[in-house]
């Protein structure tokens, strides 16, 4: 499978498809829930072009998700991306890739989401974080679509592990972190989305100013008659102490805005702005 771009002659992911097709047992047996890490996922030239196109940290295309449980930015609009990133995302939504993903994960009839509901380009800046959570369960505009699989491609060149940012995979009770996945260049992480697939990078990033933790996130769904709708479920870690109360309160607010998005058609960007204002007020109210 090959796609032509203006900056790269050919995007060839046939080797990646072969690696994924051969990894079903490894995926199914992984702990704490099914997942796999694939290094050097893309040809070097393709990865280099995609990384070079990644929007700069303060580009106007970014939408801020800035509240108690996360401080990150997203761009879910491929039309604003460079040509390599656009065609890479399109490649990961093709029938060939989705069929291979179905074989890897065991979910039949997976559906790609070119609308990037919750996905797209993500970046987290110095001091940013993402608390431990299990993901929302259904598509916001297509409630018949149940979320099943996350595919994350890390676009960080020269990432230093001392900066933090490893994605932590936690057990079902959020009692212990079972695995940490460093967000290094050209690493692909695929994992099953479920009520017990807790993950995050909850500690503040220590990367230099102007450096961001960068990724491309795509989510895949199955069509069901009446899937159960649940918003992103954040959980405190053991030892979080009083911070757990803020995590819980923010989670309730997020659940409310999630319902508004589904029932009233409120955009994710609009909900994010309201949550950001609440986060700023909370920070101002804390004693110095």
What is the first-to-last residue Cα distance?
57 Å
Structural class: alpha+beta
Number of strands: 15
- CATH superfamily assignment? q2cbj1_9rhob like domain
Kindly state the percentage of residues in helix.
25-40%
- Domains (count): 1
CATH class: Mainly Beta
Mean pLDDT, to the nearest integer, reads 89
Rg, rounded, reads 18 Å
- The CATH architecture name reads Sandwich
- The proportion of residues in beta strands is 15-25%
Under CATH, the topology can be stated as Jelly Rolls
Low-confidence stretches: 1-9, 281-288
Topology as a string of helices (H) and strands (E):
EEHHEHEEHHEEEEEEEEEEHH
How many strands, what sense, and barrel or not for the largest sheet? Answer: 8 strands, antiparallel
Compact summary:
The chain has 7 helices and 15 strands. The chain has 288 residues and is an alpha+beta fold. The strands form 3 sheets. Strands 3, 4, 5, 6, 7, 9, 12 and 14 form an 8-stranded antiparallel sheet that branches. The chain has a 5-stranded antiparallel sheet with strand order 11-10-13-8-15.
Tags for this model:
single chain, 288 residues, alpha+beta, Jelly Rolls, 8-stranded antiparallel beta sheet, 5-stranded antiparallel beta sheet, globular, disordered C terminus
What does this structure look like?
- Strands 3, 4, 5, 6, 7, 9, 12 and 14 form an eight-stranded antiparallel beta sheet that branches.
- It is globular, with a radius of gyration of 18 Å.
- Helix 3 (44-53) packs across helix 4.
- It has a single domain (2-285), classed as Sandwich (Jelly Rolls), CATH 2.60.120.
- The longest helix is centred in the last third of the chain and has 22 residues, at 243-264.
- It is an alpha+beta fold and 288 residues long.
- It is built from seven helices and 15 strands.
């Amino acid at each position: 499978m090959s796609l032509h771009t203006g900056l790269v002659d050919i995007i060839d992911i046939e080797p990646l498809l072969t690696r994924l097709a051969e990894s079903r047992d490894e995926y199914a047996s992984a702990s704490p829930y099914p997942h796999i890490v694939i290094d050097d996922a893309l040809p070097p030239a393709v990865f280099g072009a995609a990384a070079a196109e990644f929007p700069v940290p303060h580009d106007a295309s970014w939408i801020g998700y800035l509240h108690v449980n996360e401080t990150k930015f997203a761009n879910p609009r491929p039309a604003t991306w460079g040509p390599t990133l656009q065609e890479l995302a399109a490649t990961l939504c093709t029938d060939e890739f989705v069929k291979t993903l179905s074989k890897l994960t065991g979910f039949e009839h997976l559906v790609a989401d070119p609308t990037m509901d919750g996905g797209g380009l993500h970046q987290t800046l110095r001091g940013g974080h993402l608390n431990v959570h299990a993901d929302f369960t259904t598509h916001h505009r297509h409630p018949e679509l149940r979320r099943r699989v996350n595919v994350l491609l890390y676009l960080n060149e020269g990432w230093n592990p001392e900066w933090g940012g490893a994605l932590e995979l936690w057990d079902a009770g959020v009692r212990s972190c079972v695995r940490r996945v460093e967000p290094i260049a050209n690493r692909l992480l695929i994992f099953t989305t479920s009520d017990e697939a807790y993950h995050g990078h909850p500690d503040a990033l220590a990367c230099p100013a102007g450096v961001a933790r960068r990724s491309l996130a795509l989510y895949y769904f199955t069509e069901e008659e009446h899937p159960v709708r649940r918003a992103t479920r954040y959980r405190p870690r053991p030892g979080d102490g009083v911070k757990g109360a803020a995590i819980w309160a923010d989670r309730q607010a997020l659940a409310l805005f999630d319902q508004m998005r589904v029932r009233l058609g409120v955009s994710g960007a609009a909900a994010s702005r309201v949550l950001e204002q609440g986060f700023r007020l909370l920070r101002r109210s804390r004693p110095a």
